[in-house]
Amino acid sequence: MLELRDGEFNLWAKDYDMDVKKSERENRYLFAAYKEVLNTVYSKVSGYEKKIILDLGFGTGVLTKRLFENTEEMLKAKEKDKDIWDDEEHYIIADKIAKLLPYLKVNFEKLSYCSGVLTIRKSD
Q: Which SUPFAM superfamilies match (predicted)?
């Protein structure tokens, strides 16, 4: 489990890019398909004149954990990478978001077992 205490984020920041590359190369949690996620987001928004991008972070994730239960796929991912899984980090479940926002068009594009791109748009 990756756990960062006070001041440790700055220490991790020095090796962050290297850790991202290693995780992506090995197709491991936390950054599997990292470049594909970035490229997908870029390609989705680059054609629009006006862009609004919301990069979500949920702080400690306490409320998010209560709102979004673990799915079967998340449990499989957690089992695959149990030695490095971060129990403090929680994930949005696209199907649940879609139900909460029925007036919007919600789409999730899965890019790896632990990553993807969630697109939320105005309905046509």
A: S-adenosyl-L-methionine-dependent methyltransferases (SSF53335)
